[in-house]
Each structure stands twice: as C-alpha cells, then as structure tokens.
Amino acid sequence: MLSRCAAATYCGGTDFASTGSPNAIRHSGSRILSLSLAETPPPQAPHLLIVDDDRDHRFLVSKLLQENGFRVSLAPDAAAMQRLLESGEPDLILLDIMLPDEDGLALCRQVRAESDLPIIILTALGRGPHKVAGLDMGADDYVAKPFDSQELL
To answer: Nearest Cα to 138, choosing from 146, 76, 114?
Structure first.
C-alpha cells in the first residue's frame, strides 16, 4: 500500500509561489522548485511526471496525485520535461498536447520511440480525432479536460 505523500519537483518556469503558504516553496537556485505539502514520499512511491503549460492545472493535478500517494515532478514545457527525464525516468508521464515549445503529440511519439514509459495524454482538446492521433502516437491512454479525479486515479 502506498503511504500518503506530497512532494513535488518543478523544473522550468519562473515561479510557483501562488500555490499556497510561503514556506511551501524551496528554490535550489537552478530553477528546480520543491513543494512539500506533507511528509516526504517514500522512495518506492510511484513517480509521475506532469507536463502541462498551465501552472494552475499542474498544481491541481499534482496535489490530487500527491494526496493519493504519488511522487510528482512538474514541467511546463518540452525542454523542462527533457531535463527531468535526463535526471531519472518517472514511472508514468501525464502529457498535455498543447505545449509552448513543442507539439505534445510529437513529444509523445519521441518518448515512445525511446522507451516503453507509460504516457497518458491529459488535454483540453477533447476526444475524437485528437484522441485517435494521441493513441496512434503511442499514448497508453487519453483523458480529456475537464475530468473527474477518479478517472485519473
């Protein structure tokens, strides 16, 4: 059974300070921010990477996942995602399609060509042709925003 945890690593972007208490943010000087909402996650807790350019959405999804026992890393764009992947492979990627520096579908195809890392597309682009394209690019699942939290868990 996973123990409850709430620690996140944020790579990229300029700030994450709007997320809550002033002591929740630790900045290491290299634009990597850690958010500690509760206890430190155990090392065996599954590690998820959320790639989404919407800061509020990244925070809300990370909070949901952390409250359910997952370690979470956050990336606002493809470049930050690549840096986080180089530092260690997560157990799963939650990937938005619309990113500022690269198309999420192309990014999905690239990750799939290099590994079997599970990818869930989590996007506002709805279903239909976008869902088919995402699954064709190698995504394991496709969840349209808005979504029920139980659908993601």
So the answer is: 114
Q: What does DSSP assign to residue 68?
A: T
Distance of alpha carbon 84 from alpha carbon 55, whole angstroms: 17
Distance CA 126, CA 143 (A): 8
Q: Find all residues with CB under 8 Å of 37, minimum gap 6, and list them.
A: 6, 7, 20, 24, 63, 66
Residues near 11 by beta carbon (within 8 Å), at least 6 away in sequence: 31, 32, 73, 74, 75, 80, 81, 83, 84
- Helix intervals (H) in 4-88: 55-66, 78-87
Report the 10 Å Cβ neighbour count for 85: 20
- Per-residue tokens: 121: 């597309």
pLDDT tens sequence across 106-133: 999 999 999 999 999 998 887 788 888 8
Question: Encoding tokens for residue 66?
Answer: 């952390």
Residue 105 has pLDDT above 80, yes or no: yes
Task: Give the C-alpha separation, 144 to 27, whole Å.
Answer: 32
Q: What is the pLDDT of residues 15-46, one digit of tens each?
A: 332 233 333 333 333 333 444 445 566 778 99
